[in-house]
Amino acid sequence: MNVPEPAGIDRTVVIVGGGQGGLTLAVTLRECGWIGRIVIVDTEPGDPYQRPPLSKGFLTGDQTHADLVTRSRELLARDSIELLAGTTVIGIDRERRTVALDDGDPLAYDVLVLATGARPRALPLEGASAHGVHVVRTREDAESLLSALRRAADIVIIGGGFLGLELASAAAHFGRVTVIESAPALLGRSLSAPTARALAARHASDGTTLLLATGVARIVSADGHATGVELHDGREVPADLVIVSVGAQPNLELAAAAGIATADGIVVTGSLRTSDPAIYAIGDCANYPHPHVGEMVRLESVQNAVDQARHLAAALAGSGAGDVYAATPWFWSHQAGQNLQIAGIAVPSDDAVVVEENGRRLTVARVRDGLLTAVETLNSPRIHIRARKLLARGPAPADAIEGLAYDLQSTAG
Ligand code: FAD
């Protein structure tokens, strides 16, 4: 009788990046029965941690350092997952199948997974390197911001995206906050106009000043410390703390230097494989063909990183080999006391149908060519869950909105 070989016997998976995607991949591989060696290499020191609280509860004091940790080194060791924390992969030798480390001998792999994430987009402006100018991506960034917030009075946030607005909410606990956004509306690429307007109103009622359609000329500084932000029209907004939040760019240089195809991210197939069949990419750094959208996308969300990691783990361990990754995207953001959730994936030109507007609650359906593409909710988690089910296989016929309405009746009051 032929006994199947356990998954991964004598094979090594090296994962570059121990963030949300890399960590989930390692843990899920073990759960799927992979018995080969698993090594995570991450530039950041310490236990792997989650980023979402860094712009929310960690700044307001609702979440501590310990709450950030996703899995301790002790728990990883119990699952025989090796973590090289504080170590950077500086090169890939695709012929030898090794990666070069900044602090040790090369590491051999059979399968290499790039889960390198993204980093804050830099603002090429005069004054951008002054003291008092912050970005937020890492635990260290958030710690440094928190100590600066405790001393700040006038806080300016450049960029009114999800992250900038979350930071505005947290900063409002400490001082006067101004958000400067170059587009005429907040979150215009990600949200419908009704949802964006509702969020803007709630930020304004928190006392945050929103300057829309406003360009930044430079960050003004004195003695090397930021003192204000000069706008294109010549006005100056005073600031003793400036947070730059103008988007993220994928960490793709390692892949590009090894000759792996990159575009806006590391290009992968529907099964998350790069142009080298022994190398995969997942999470914020991966640019993949999403079947629900019909084009290449690169998503920056916990759901995307975690679901891609789980999909890849199952494929590598043999239980889903060859399957195309097609999970329905969903996203959340907490800001201005609002629980914003999005199920599905819309493009800016999709119609916006307000399904419910009731005090604190708002539900907006996005529709394109008779299909429901996404559902945005404020403070309606049950509707969000219902929407995720409706959209589980991609865009649904627009009359599926009636299914949401049914849920609205059952949750009324
Ligand atoms: P990351 O978690 O960024 O991990 C990548 C890791 O790779 C990093 O630890 C990095 O050090 C390491 N690395 C990179 N290059 C190398 C190298 N050469 N060698 C070794 N290590 C390397 N998403 C949501 O869905 N909801 C939210 O509310 C939300 N809030 C957020 C708040 C903040 C402040 C931030 C920064 C992000 C937030 N996100 C949120 C986005 C979410 O955190 C990311 O989408 C998610 O972390 C992506 O996971 P990842 O594994 O792809 O990348």
Global geometry? globular
Show unreliable segments: none
Helix run count: 11
| Structure summary, number of beta strands | 28
Distance between the termini: 62 Å
* Structure class: alpha/beta
Biggest β-sheet description? 6 strands, antiparallel
Rounded mean pLDDT is 94
Question: Which ligands accompany this protein?
Answer: flavin-adenine dinucleotide
Q: In percent, how helical is the residue content?
A: 10-25%
- How much of the sequence lies in strands comes to 25-35%
Rg (CA only)? 22 Å
Describe this structure in words.
With 413 residues, the protein is an alpha/beta fold. The protein has eleven helices and 28 strands. It has helices at 20-31, 57-60, 65-68, 73-78, 139-149, 162-171, 193-205, 253-257, 302-316, 381-390, 401-411, and strands at 12-16, 37-42, 81-85, 89-93, 98-101, 104-108, 111-114, 118-120, 133-134, 154-158, 176-180, 209-211, 216-222, 225-231, 236-238, 241-244, 248-250, 262-263, 265-267, 279-281, 286-290, 295-297, 330-335, 338-344, 351-358, 361-368, 371-378, 396-397. The strands form seven sheets. Strands 23, 24, 25, 26, 27 and 28 form a six-stranded antiparallel beta sheet that branches. A five-stranded parallel beta sheet has the order 3-2-1-7-20. Strands 9-16-10-11-12 form a five-stranded parallel beta sheet. Helix 1 packs parallel to helix 9 (302-316) and helix 10 packs antiparallel against helix 11. The N and C termini lie far apart (62 Å). The mean pLDDT is 94. Residues 16-22, 41-44, 51-52, 54-55, 88-89, 115-117, 136-137, 163, 251, 254, 283-284, 300-303, 305, 331-333 line the site of flavin-adenine dinucleotide.
